[in-house]
Amino acid sequence: MINVAFYVPKLIGGGAERVFVNLANELSEMSEYKVFMFVSRLGGVYEAELKEKVELISLGDKTLFKSIMPLQSKLKLYSISHLICGMPFPNLLGIFQKFFINKLHVTVVEHNDLRVQLLEKTGGWRKKLSPKIIKYSYGFADEVICVSKGVQEFVNICNRKISHKVTTIYNPIFSFELIKKSNHPIDDCDFKKGKLTLITVARLNRQKNLSLFIATCCELKKLMPDFRAYILGEGEEGALLQRKILDNNLQDSVKLMGFKKNPYNYIKCSDVFLLTSKWEGFGNVLVESAACGTPVVSINCPSGPKEIIENLNFGILVEQSKPELLAKAVLECFYTDFESCAGKMAEYSIENIAKKYTKVIFKNI
Predict the structure, then answer these.
(1) In terms of domains, do 8 and 137 share one?
(2) 353, 343: one domain
(3) Cβ-count burial of 347 within 10 angstroms (0-12 exposed, 13-18 middle, 19+ buried)?
(4) Range of 116's domain?
């Protein structure tokens, strides 16, 4: 049996963390693998979604950089032969272990195309260092998996010498469990359908650009006054977004709903999903929305949304971040009878993506 470990700082409600939970759960059902999930800190919302076969191991409530030695200790204690990490700084910690643990196989997963942040000179010192981490450390990894072709292009720009190690595998999103959850009844007095019901699911932060979502709702109200819009998620911009809703007199139309453990029934009961992000490595929510049968409108941000929408043909890609264009696209999407994309969901299924990971990571076994 092969002992495999995933490492993330904390299983918070983000896309990268969701991917690792899905992969860990799927690998745990394969008889060849004993699966561990190492976290620097416990308390993440996704911990409850790990299957019993996945062993959750805390590194002792440590910060990211103080996790180096505890991670090394746990890798040795549990005889881990293969370590899978995601995002530049956790990836760096994983690569660092190769110098101290003989024959440790390290796979790093890159989730983001950071070109927008680097161009805008935002994101803080960590984002500024990320390209250097990719350039100077990813060459020591055994494989580099990118979640979209756009992310792979970004990684190759950072370090062209490692292109032979880099491959694209889309995120594992679709499952029949997702469909089952989407059919759960909604017991929530704050959720009421309008003539058009618009939804998004996102962390309330700068990347997700939800001020643009609210500005789009302002334009949409001019075109269809009897609409409803819902933002599912939590984050540091919650108070700012609530003020924008009140300032634009949208309190009867737009609601912040907070984090929902099951967002899929809300998505299914909505008419259109709108993504306004400045960048997305992949865009898990677009696949999730399509799986629920709700068409999507998305900004053509780097990198994943274009790849997803062009593949599924179940929504509209908008080239410019203009509220009036997005509002018109939402209406067009609402009135368009899209052909079902159910037959294309297998490409994003957890089972198929997990098999792709195993073929790449364990190819020499």
Answers:
(1) yes
(2) no
(3) middle
(4) 2-172+349-361
Task: Decide: helix, strand or coil at residue 223.
Answer: helix
Q: Write out the two tokens for 162.
A: 């490692």
Same domain for 95 and 147: yes
Q: How far apart are CA 343 and CA 202, in angstroms?
A: 26
Q: Can you give the pTM of this predicted structure?
A: 0.92
Does residue 286 share a domain with residue 245?
yes
* Number of domains the chain is built from: 2
What are the C-alpha distances in Å from 45 to residues 31, 41, 137, 174, 273? 27, 12, 30, 20, 23
Structure tokens at 349: 């299924």
Helices (H), 292-322: 304-312
User: What's the sign of the alpha-carbon dihedral 303, 305, 309, 311?
Assistant: positive
Burial of 345 (0-12, 13-18, 19+ CB in 10 A): buried
Distance CA 108, CA 87 (A): 8
Residue 130 belongs to domain with CATH number: 3.40.50.2000
- Same domain (yes/no): 201, 156: no
User: What's the rounded Cα separation, in Å, for the pair 242 and 20?
Assistant: 32
189 and 296 in one domain? yes
Same domain assignment for residues 97 and 74: yes
Residues 207, 99 share a domain:
no
Helix (H) or strand (E) holding 124: helix 124-137
DSSP notation for 231-283: EE---TTHHHHHHHHHHTT-TTTEEEEE--S--HHHHHTSSEEEE--S-BSS-
Of the candidates 151, 242, 258, the one whose C-alpha atom is nearest the C-alpha of residue 203 is 258
Digit-by-digit pLDDT tens for the chain (365 residues) are 999 999 999 998 788 999 999 999 999 999 999 999 999 999 998 999 999 999 999 999 999 889 999 999 999 999 999 999 998 999 999 999 999 999 999 999 999 888 776 666 666 767 778 889 999 999 999 999 999 999 999 999 999 999 999 999 999 999 999 999 999 999 999 999 999 999 999 999 999 999 999 999 999 999 999 999 999 999 999 999 999 999 999 999 999 999 998 999 999 999 999 999 999 999 999 999 999 999 999 999 988 999 999 999 999 999 999 999 999 999 999 999 999 999 999 999 999 999 999 999 998 77
The tokens for 216 are: 């789009």
- 254 backbone dihedrals φ, ψ, rounded to 5°: -120, 130
